[in-house]
Design goal:
Distance between the termini: 31 Å
Structural class: alpha+beta
Largest sheet: 2 strands, antiparallel
Strand order of the largest sheet: 1-8
Number of strands: 8
Strand content: 15-25%
Number of domains: 1
CATH class: Alpha Beta
CATH architecture: 2-Layer Sandwich
Radius of gyration: 16 Å
Helix content: 10-25%
Length: 169
């Protein structure tokens, strides 16, 4: 079993939005219908200048949303370790959203949770997630968490956010 995750090299992101558009296309999301993409792009001002962030589910190793869901709708895909969901039993309680440190889970018009699933169906068929495939600067990459670090920790959103969370504990 691989432990896959989508990682962002912040030094390469140019905030073009191609990843968000690919996400909307892959998941048949229509902004006119009041839905938003699972992946959003932001600009963040820092002391050194601007950073660009492409944010979606971080597919946490110990995903708190899984523990927070009383209906067991969220789980780890056994082959990829991506955090996926099946809302058949979702009761719309928002516990998963409250448990997620990134505020990722959102709720559709039917009141059921929706979120990025890492395009796990694509990944199962040997394809890259839609956002990773279209990233023109290769800032988004599908990585194996058990492989040697491919992205310097100072550039990785995953490593920077983990450090921030550790400081708050």
């Amino acid at each position: 079993m691989s432990r896959l995750a989508i990682d962002l090299d912040m030094s390469k992101c140019v905030s073009c939005g191609a990843c968000a558009i690919a996400c909307m296309d892959q998941n048949d999301i229509e902004l006119d219908a009041g839905k938003g993409p699972f992946r959003c792009v932001f600009d963040m001002e820092e002391r050194e200048g601007f950073s660009h962030l492409s944010l979606a589910c971080m597919h946490c190793v110990d995903a708190p949303c899984i523990v927070g869901c009383p209906s067991a709708c969220i789980h780890k895909d056994p082959e990829t370790n991506l955090t996926v969901f099946d809302t058949t039993n979702c009761i719309g309680c928002h516990s998963c959203a409250m448990a997620c440190p990134y505020g990722v889970p959102s709720f559709g018009p039917d009141g059921k949770m929706v979120k990025c699933d890492g395009c796990y169906v694509r990944v199962h068929h040997g394809l890259l997630p839609a956002c990773v495939k279209v990233c023109p600067t290769k800032a988004l990459r599908l990585i194996d968490l058990d492989a040697p670090a491919e992205i310097p920790p100072e550039h990785s959103l995953r490593q920077r956010s983990l450090a921030l969370l550790e400081r708050q504990v």
